[in-house]
Amino acid sequence: MMPDASGMQALRGVKRKNYFVCAALLFGGFIAHGLSAGAFAPALVLAYGGWSASFLVIGVAVGAGWIAVKSAGMWSGPVSLVAATVLIHHTGGPLSPCFPMLSAIPFAIAIYTPDTRVPTVVACGGMLGAVMVLDVLAGLPPRELLAHGACFGLIGAIAIAGTRTYRSMRDAEKTAQQERLVALDQLSESERRRLKAERERAEVDRLVLVGQLAAGVAHEVNNPLAFVKSNLGFLERELRTEGGALDVGELRDVVAETQDGVLRIQQIVMDLRRFSREIDEGDAGQAEDAIHEARRLASVRLRGLGDVTLEIDAELPPVRLGQRHLVQVLLNLLVNAADAVEDAEPARRAAIAVRARKLEGGVRVEVEDNGPGIPQHVLARLFEPFFTTKPPGKGTGLGLALCREYVSRVEGSLRAENRSEGGARFVMWLPAAGEPVSASASAAA
């Protein structure tokens, strides 16, 4: 993968810095060499000065983009070989203390040009040529020429092999990095799809609940609507009566009853609209408000089945679960309780109780019914997605699974149990907003 513009600029900056550092080290070597020799010979000045200046020029050219980063090694290799050869020749030839410097040049080139082996191969060839030239100028016998050639040839082979190994390791790292990036992209896409599916699943469950309540809504609206119409008819008849005295007190009662009926219809419509509409989830929920709203919504399902009694502690703290999800969880529990009592044999009047208690670190909510209870084999699978004992068209098996998921997401708990006196009980624990869960772990149990 080719680096982008910013990455290439950063790479040029690193390469430029490396060449400047090398130039500084060469200049330092020149000073040290001159001080140790007691004089700065012209050849020494020429070799070190030219070498250091060349690296400065290459660094500037690479940083400015005048030459490609990969081409810099092709320039630095020959420059280093020529400068080192001149330096060694004027400081003793094969006997010079700088003679081993030739063996380091291919390794230095390999480090500075790891992406390609060509500069290293060229440097190895140049190193062998420089050794031969120095040996010939020094008048060494053929045997020593061959020995030097074999020794430096081995060093060059090691440099080439090292370059190849380094390139293989670097390519493997790049491939692994690419695979990690692809895996991260796939994970991100998977998480996006999961969240989308979760939202769709929650929407389906909420609309299923609205559908289950629809028949009851018609009944609940018809009741207040009937006496609203009756009262309006009464008012119309009274106003048409000629010469009759209107009873102001009775008229006020009729108007008050009519207003109550209209408000009841308005409340039902508002509750359903708020519940069925997708809204932003708040940071915290008010348990008492959610219980009252859920009971109003559930009343259209209960109709003549029975009553819902409430026992709510005063000043319950806000809980971590958002208001909409909190209402949805409570409504699910109330509707399930109504279904359980409706299917009970023998038939009985529903007695559903909701208790909310303020405990240390949170709120505990219990929903009880007087239905037949939950069979043990059902109790073990009650919160599994798509598991339901209801007939087709009456349940999706998502309601309780989503309830537990919402509660668990805020580090709360939801469990079901059978009451000793008959019926079922759902126990929900919700941490207070802003409270650490560890402080309330014992209360949750």
Automatic annotation (TrEMBL):
EC number: 2.7.13.3
Membrane spanning residue stretches: 48-69, 118-138, 145-162
Gene3D superfamilies for this protein: 1.10.287.130, Histidine kinase-like ATPase, C-terminal domain (3.30.565.10)
InterPro entries: HATPase_C_sf, HATPase_dom, His_kinase_dom, HisK_dim/P_dom, HisK_dim/P_sf, Sig_transdc_His_kin-like_C
Keywords: Kinase, Membrane, Phosphoprotein, Transferase, Transmembrane, Transmembrane helix
Broad enzyme group: transferase
GO molecular function: phosphorelay sensor kinase activity
Pfam families given in the database record: HATPase_c, HisKA
Domain Histidine kinase, first and last residues per copy: 216-434
Catalytic activity: ATP + protein L-histidine = ADP + protein N-phospho-L-histidine
Xref: PANTHER family: HISTIDINE KINASE, SENSOR HISTIDINE KINASE
Protein name: histidine kinase
Biological source species: Archangium violaceum Cb vi76
